[in-house]
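To illustrate the input format used throughout this study, we show a single complete record. The first block contains the structure-token representation of the backbone; no residue identities are included at this stage. The design step must infer an amino acid for every position from geometry alone.
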């Protein structure tokens, strides 16, 4: 496999062809925040926190670094003004949905977000933001549990149902009751720690 050279934050980085920008950055010790990424799973690009700015000539755009492949001569900025503004907006939305999630709070503090700011920007006073007037949930829909069960365990005992603000992760009882008691490997992947309680609902209905 051939090697490519790209520039990340003004630093020359060598990477193997086929790697993603995220993999190349981390191999060089450059941190890019993620919530839905796991090295054992196929890239997903759900949380978008790993967005970076890539530059080609005079043109630049934001891409999800966990799914974008490295290219020779590519210029990457992981903390440009466009990137930090985009991450801050995403974190505000996530915080409004899941205010108790520790990783979101940690990233939010890093990017200058406070709980008061989220209430001000996405609270009852903004009619066009009424969709965020929902009961807070600790699931951030990263899909780690769903993908692990499908890709690694090949069981599909857990999955997504619904769309939009009604989208959620659920265990499918007919499969979960058979496979999950002896597994529960996805529990440790959940960045919110909420997964065991979801599974508890299945157990309670058994």
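Output of the design step:
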């Amino acid at each position: 496999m051939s090697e490519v050279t790209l520039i990340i934050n003004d630093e020359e980085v060598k990477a193997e062809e086929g790697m993603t920008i995220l993999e190349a950055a981390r191999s060089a010790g450059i941190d890019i925040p993620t919530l839905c990424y796991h090295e054992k799973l196929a890239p997903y690009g759900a949380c978008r926190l790993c967005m970076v700015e890539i530059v080609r000539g005079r043109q630049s755009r934001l891409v999800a670094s966990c799914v974008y492949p490295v290219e020779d001569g590519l210029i990457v900025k992981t903390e440009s003004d466009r990137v930090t503004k985009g991450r801050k907006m995403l974190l505000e939305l996530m915080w409004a949905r899941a205010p108790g999630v520790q990783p979101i709070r940690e990233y939010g503090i890093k990017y200058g977000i406070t709980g008061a700011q989220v209430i001000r920007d996405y609270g009852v006073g903004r009619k066009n933001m009424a969709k965020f007037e929902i009961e807070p949930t600790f699931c951030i829909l990263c899909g780690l549990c769903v993908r692990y069960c499908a890709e690694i365990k090949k069981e599909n005992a857990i999955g997504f149902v619904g769309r939009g603000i009604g989208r959620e992760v659920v265990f499918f009882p007919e499969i979960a009751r058979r496979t999950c008691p002896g597994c529960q490997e996805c529990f440790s992947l959940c960045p919110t720690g909420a997964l065991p309680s979801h599974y508890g609902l299945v157990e309670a209905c058994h």
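Structural context for interpreting the output: The radius of gyration is 19 Å. Residues 124-134 have pLDDT under 50 and may be disordered.
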